[in-house]
Structure formats: structure tokens, C-alpha cells
Design brief:
The structure holds 2 protein chains of 2 kinds. By secondary structure, chain A is an all-beta fold. Helices cover 0% and strands 49% of the residues of chain A. Classes of the chains: A mainly beta, B mainly beta.
Amino acid sequence: QVRLVQSGAEVKRPGASMKVSCETSGYSFTDHYVHWVRQAPGHGLEWLGWINPFNGDRSFSQRFQGRLAMTADAATTTAYFQLAGLRFDDTATYFCAISKGVGFLEYQLMTHWGQGTRVSVSS
Amino acid sequence: DIVLTQSPDSLSVSLGERATITCKSSQSLLYRSVPKKYLAWYQQKPGQPPKLLISWASMPESGVPARFTGSGSGTDFTLTINDLQAEDVAVYFCHQYLNTPWTFGQGTRVELK
């Protein structure tokens, strides 16, 4: 059974950094991309990026150029998302999700999701 | 960035009736060399993460009830829920994964009338 368990809620000050973990189990970690998506309160979904745990390849939204980092630790089958220079509008629930597979027509599809991690940026 | 505009923003439907949600893309989502339409539909219930319903505009995920169907051309897409059930009450999002940044529609809330 595929499971994605994310770290707990965080409260951060503006300018600080956040790090969310996504501990996975029940599947082969390197056979699926890990995606990150966020959802601001009462708002829609925003794609942040993905990482291929097999080779470390990444793609991410240029909106977060220089602020975003994604890593994947195959030894612990855990993925991490970091965002630096937090702003009030970074307040959101951050989700990890894994892809259907690594194939050309699979890596884009987010089939299993974590429960979400609420990050609040407040002074 | 590709902009996806859903309509309506919310929809009230009686049990057993049909719900139709449209998603208009600011550019074609058809990748001709494949050829496939890079559009998916997700369902999100309160307090839950999104759930993938349909990919490639019209391909349902395993286990998705047959009452959910997707269709569309390069820029105009539709999610239809036939014979609406109580458990279908949710927010539905379209999502393009053709060009980065991948984007989502603003969501359509489906409620029971």
C-alpha cells in the first residue's frame, strides 16, 4: 500500500526558511517522480516542481527561482521541499505527490498524495 | 504561463442529474507529435488532497466510476458527471502539464441542490 506521510504544521516568520518532508513507503522510491503542489487558504492549486529520485533531475516553477530546493533521499525513501525567504503569501498547505511512473506518459500524473503540511507565515 | 479558466465557479445539481464543467486553455494542450492532450481533472473533497480522475483529457484512472467522463479539443475541455451521487460533492480542478509552469484551473465547486 502506497503511503506518503508529510511532516507537521509549521509557523514561520517572514524571511525564514521552511522544510517539509514526505516519507514514502509501499512502492519503489526511484520508480516514481515526487511532485510538490501548494494550496493557499481558500484558493486553488499551484504546482511547485518535481524531482526524479532515480537521478535527481528536477523541474520547478520559475516563480520560485533561487528560493526553492527539492531533494530525495533513496536511503530513507523520503523527499524534501525547502522554500527560503518566506513571505506572507507563502502561507499555504504544501502537498507531496508521486507520479504514475517514470515513463514519458506517466511522470506527469500525480496519483498518490500526502496529507498536506500547513505552513503559516506570520509576524 | 498557460491559463486555465473553468466555468462555472460553482454548480448546484440534484442527485441523479448531470454536472458539466468546462475548462478553457489559453493555448492548445495538444502535443501533436505524441499526439495527446496534456490535460487532467482532479477532484478534491474538504480536508483531503486532490485525487486524479482523468488524464490525457479523456482517460479515466482505474477505479474512477464510469459516470465521470472527460472530453475536449486542444483548448476546450469538459468534465461530465452523469447521475450525480452525494459522494461527488467536491471541488474539481483541471490541470495542464504540457508546459512549465504546470497550472491548474481555479476550481469548480459542485454542490447538491
